[in-house]
Amino acid sequence: VLPHRTHHQHEAFPQDMMAIPRSGLCLWAVLLGCFSNDSSAFSPSSISPKSFISRNNPIQMPSHQRNNNNKQMLHMSLTQAEFDKELLSLSEECALTPQGFGFSSSMSRVLESANRGPGFYRAKGTDRVIDVMDGITKGDADAALIFDGSDLLGLFTESDYIKFSVARAKASTEAESASFLVSPVSDYATPAADLISLSMDDPASKAIAAMKTADVRHLVLADKVSESNKLTPQSKVQGLINMQAVMSLVQKDERLSLESLSKKFPGLDDPLAQMKEEIKSNANLMAKNPETAKRDIIRAGTSVLAAASVILFFTGSPWLKDHADLAMIGIFCLGYIGIIFEEVFEFNKAAIALLMSTGMWVTYADFFNGSSGIASEKVIEQLGEQLAEVSDICFFLLAASAIVEVVDAHQGFKVVTNQITTKSKKSLFWTIGFLTFFLSAILNNLTVTIVMVSLLRKLIPNEDDRRLFGAMVVVAANAGGVWTPIGDVTTTMLWINNNLSTIPTVTELFLPSVVCLVGSLAFLVNQVEEDNSLEESTLPEPSSLALRGQVVFWSGIASLLVVPVFAELTGLPPYIAMLTGLGAMWTLTDIMHMGEEDEDSQRVPAALSRLDTSGILFFLGILMSIGVLDKAGLLKELAVFLNENLPSLDIIATVIGIASALIDNVPLVAATMGMYDITEFGTDDKLWQLIALCAGTGGSILVIGSASGVALMGLEKVDFLWYAKKVSIGAAVGYFAGIATYLLQNAILSGSLFDGLVPQAVASVDVVQSLPGVL
Q1: Is the overall model pTM greater than 0.85, yes or no?
Q2: Which residues pair with 144 in a beta bridge?
Q3: Cα separations (Å) of 153 from 2, 498, 595?
Q4: Euclidean distance between CA atoms 313 and 96, whole angstroms
Q5: Cα–Cα distance between 130 and 136 in angstroms, integer?
């Protein structure tokens, strides 16, 4: 039965605090339908909470209530999956109520509103089951927490008592049945390690999502919990809540909000109309915010610029015909600004890259060099050639990413994580660094970064330590991706374009990459402070991987490693080898899961659906844009400019690496490939190897300089200034150490160590002296 509402509770919701986003409309309809009676839809029951609010299961409700629900949801068209997603997204925004109420209510408020003290009956592990049940039934609590002194042993609920009773009923003799009566409750309680826990400040939405996901009805409240919602050895239990307590409070708050709306808009009888008016009111208030106004100005300016560009194209402006090269450069610069400031404009960079490439190709085909306004056969041929080159890279990345996804779906990386047992933070720092370095050499560095950061969330409980470890992963992944053709997308681009070949790339870039890693880690490890925090790790004990997972892991690794061999032996493009590997993995997993309908998530189609398709389209747009600059001869002009103003190609490569800390290295390397002709600088030339090294490792200097760094920003909320302060110097140390190692190694291998020692030293000095002016 719902608690009685008092007058002062109505006053708890000032009308000017109401915040009702559009996403709350569906939820409001659900709550109004589910809670239209006085009984709570989330009262204790063995039925999952999901079943009470399922639109596909109307039998759960009386017919008159279903009719009310249907009326309330006339305007809704959500599927059950979308409906569940709506419920779980409540942690991000409050649907009907002000902050701190409804779904944003804190656990401390839920516990206080339940008015049942801590919400549990306290028992000892040695207490008898029947005594504990007697304590529960005579008190206000519906469950017991079992302690051994101050240490929590577990949770005992009516479900555990049912299991106890079933076991007792199966006793073969009266004596055996009687022995159950003196059994300690600890034998039947759910262990503390299996309990889901939240802090007192967590919102009700998170509690609902946690209980729904874990299919439990009780949550332990503590002052400190891990990120996986588990108790730590330092946790102090504060209370226990159940689903009924959470939903009772949410229901009460939501009803009060609806009543507040009806008072605010007395002229409207329809609750949906009242909510729409509230949305309009809040939208108007948000528009007055300075940040919102700034974004509106940026968007308006972007729209005007886009409209002017379209008009310029379709009117065949004489200026455009006379200055097509400037127009192409302008489109490229504007597009690149949009990509760099993607978060500000809130445009996806893939969309910007595709529009940029289209605009540049239209300008080149219809206006460049006195074109008649229609693309010539030569331009069509050039477009086909460029698309063929770019498709090589896109299909290669697509197949490689899919293979890694399949391996991860089968938990194949447990082969690696099972080897991590150290409790020393500095030892772990070096272990994770080298592990990331070698993994990124055979997998793409973005995937390795995501996998390793996910692992660090279980290994490193301290957030500051985890950020530093995550930054180290970025440095290690970028360094490791340099020395193999399949490790980093820029090296892959150079390899596919025949600027690099397999054996020289591995043998001549391995040592500089290792020096880059060691130099950076030796600098960064000084910031790691030893303590006992690793004892709180939530990483499970190493367990054996199923034979099926081992087969998939080693087959996936073999599919990746055989690509260079296949390309060398057959002479076919590398993407053919990678697609062949994907086909083999696809067939293997289909055979493994034949007849297993529940294992679709481990098959290749599911892996393909999880791929970052927008990232591949981004590469397509960028490379097509660079290609048209190359066809127009603009990159050649840039190469001439650099050669005339920088003293050596070594300095040019070094500057490109530093620039990659600010600008995405994919277009930088693509531009460089167009600037210098492969007929002049042949396969495995020193220039190409140095560009691969510099562009790959230079991106680590700033967090925005590589896809791995951007992924870290999203996963661990690492900001630009923190990274610049803590990591950039260490990354730069490794960067210049790697370059120095490569130049020294190249001098030794070419036999010109002493003949070229003085010029190399002079070149190094020139690099240092040129940097301030370049920056």
Answers
A1: no
A2: 121, 156
A3: 33, 63, 42
A4: 48
A5: 10
Burial of 157 (0-12, 13-18, 19+ CB in 10 A): buried
Cα dihedral sign for 439, 445, 448, 453?
positive
Q: pLDDT digits over 679-710, tens only?
A: 888 888 888 999 999 988 998 998 777 777 77
| DSSP symbol at 197 | E
> What is the CB neighbour count within 10 angstroms for residue 331?
21
- What share of the chain has pLDDT > 90, as a percent? 10
Residue 405's φ and ψ, nearest 5 degrees, are -60, -40
**What CA–CA distance (Å, rounded) separates 713 from 450?**
11
**Each residue's pLDDT tens digit, 619-642:** 788 878 878 887 887 777 776 777
CA–CA dist 490, 487 (Å, integer): 9
Task: Output the six-digit token pair for 110.
Answer: 């839920």
In angstroms, the CA 399 to CA 447 distance is: 13
Burial class (CB within 10 angstroms; exposed 0-12, middle 13-18, buried 19+) of 766: middle
CA 231 to chain centre: 25
77 CB-side CA count, 13 A: 1
Burial pattern 502-528, b for ≥16 Cβ within 10 A else e, equals beebbebbbebbbbbbbbbbebbbeeb
β-pair type (218-222, 197-199): parallel
For residues 735 and 479, give the distance between their C-alpha atoms in angstroms, rounded to a whole number: 9
Tokens of 447: 């995937």
- Give the model confidence (pLDDT) of 180-239 as tens digits: 878 888 888 888 888 889 988 888 888 888 888 888 889 999 988 887 788 887 788 989
Q: How many CB atoms lie within 10 A of CB 91?
A: 17
Backbone angles phi, psi at 242, to 5 degrees: -120, 175
- Give 767 or 148, the one with higher predicted confidence: 148
Q: Tell me the two tokens of residue 174.
A: 């009266």
Are 209 and 186 in contact by the 8 Å Cβ rule? The answer is no
Q: What is the pLDDT of residue 714?
A: 63
First to last CA, the chain: 69
Q: Position 25: which residue type? A: L
Tell me the pLDDT of the chain averaged across its residues: 75
Give the pair of three-digit tokens for residue 617: 């389209």
